[in-house]
Design brief:
By secondary structure, the chain is an alpha/beta fold. Helices cover 39% and strands 16% of the residues. The chain has 22 helices and 20 strands. The strands form four sheets. It has a six-stranded parallel beta sheet, with helices on both faces. A six-stranded parallel beta sheet has the order 11-10-9-12-13-14, sandwiched between helices. Helix 1 packs across helix 2 and helix 3 crosses helix 17. The termini are far apart. The structure holds thiamine diphosphate and magnesium ion. Magnesium ion binds next to loops.
Length: 542
Amino acid sequence: MTARDGAHVLVEALLAQGVDTLFGIPGVATLRLYDAFLDHREVRPINVRHEQAAVFMADGFARASGSIGVALTSGGPGALNTLTAMGTAYNDSSAVLHITNENPPAVRKRGRGYFHDISDQLAVFRPVSDLQEQVLLAEEIPAALHRSMFALRNRRPRPAMLEVAAEAFDQVTEVEIGPKAARIDRRADDDAIARAAAAVVAAQRPVIWAGGGVVMSGADQELRRLAERLGAPVLTSQAGKGSLPADHELHLGNWANEEPVRRLLRDSDLLIAVGTRFSYFPTGGWSMPQPASLVHIDLDPTQIGRDYQVAVPVVGDATQALVQLLEELDAFGYEGLPSRAAEVADIRRQIDAAVGPSVELDVLDQIRSALPRSTRVFNDPTTLAFWARSYWPAYEPRTWFVPSGFGTLGFALPAAIGAKVAVPDDPCVAIIGDAGVMFTIQDLMTAVQERVSVVVLVFNDGGYGVERRHQDHLFGRQSNVDMLAPDFVRLAQSFGARGMRVDDLSGVGTALEAALEAEGPVLIEVPNQFRHPGYGAMGAYD
Ligand SMILES: Cc1ncc(C[n+]2csc(CCOP(=O)(O)OP(=O)(O)O)c2C)c(N)n1
Ligand SMILES: [Mg+2]
């Protein structure tokens, strides 16, 4: 192996791991790395306007593609600017690798007033990453990167930190790069599968719950086979939307707060939950009734049995575990159960009737009709997204994204940009509020410069609509929730993007169709007075 500096080693090692896109901002200590990119034109380092957006983009890239999103910052302020986005990726189990640097040894952690000095950078990231690797020597780079990628590919995906000491970029080494981190077999234990199969065979009224793990693992086809075999209704969490096409006859979706679905759960004798932690919103703050028996399949053993009592725990990758379960059912000679599609349709009718028509749902219908089924839709915590979390029909996995764990404002715009970089052939759309978009609007400039054709729907209600609803509810009056907004159309145009305003809510779909035809990013401002649907049931039932 020829001698080269650590910066070149890192670039070679990233390429060997299949990484060819990075989102970041250069700083003095990472300049040698940026210089090395000039010798590897197959790498696309995308400059962002704020490091928070670098991690949001890496997160969107990872969520949309199923590969690993990589952010590159300079140490100290650059790295710490990402904390909120790291927390988001951590809470939502997204496979983000964040590479940053530490200062040279003579000035590192000495408090001597050196640039970007911080006493223990990795410690700051501990609560928002699953792995923190520190590299002091150039020759350690390939192995440390391999360890990070191996963890990201095989554990529950959560952000990893790779901190490289500045001097390691300069050191010359002949280190070998080594292989790409493999995906290992994450089969479930055969005995656990046998017990799960026995529970299925004994069940008369099973129901399936699909979480984000189904989407992430790519287990949608296996889930569909299991559902059809059992004739079982399929509920999803928010993150699990798209695990089964929303127009499949067994799809119930993310409606577990509604009484007809709760009745169904109380009447069922088995819940098969796959790739889920039964989080707060989809379970109505864990008020969802405990099913008679629960088979819980998850890659992360710490998620099993935390909030719902589990009869059969199964630790494993969703796809592998479902394949095993289907094989075991075959071996049993299991005949399956008749389809309960009619029951599902009846429950859906009851929910539709109870929720009723509304201007908010009409706008969502327009958006859905304007978008191809493969469109990647990124939501911010804006009012319309709270309607969409249950109502939105997702037809394919990796088409529906929400910062559901952290609830982070500003996520949707950069995440949609990162997604579009990863999957340029699919439309990528952000749904965001007038306040949320101001958190990361600067990165519309990145989309312009990189010619990333995202569509950003900005729902402008002149302030913090979600907080208004809370205040009305809690105090009966409002404080500090009205916000002045810029002229979004002219703001977008000043970036070199297209800007449109839809003053009549019946025109949202048409405007969106036009935006999808455009080259480069488009911002569509939609003035509105949407109501918030609340956090529990959306319909009232007798
Ligand atoms: C980073 C961050 N800061 C603060 C909040 C609290 N918060 C949640 S929703 C919201 C208002 C959002 O306003 P906007 O984006 O305009 O959407 P709207 O609620 O008006 O539909 C605020 C301040 C948050 N979720 N995330
Ligand atoms: Mg608003």
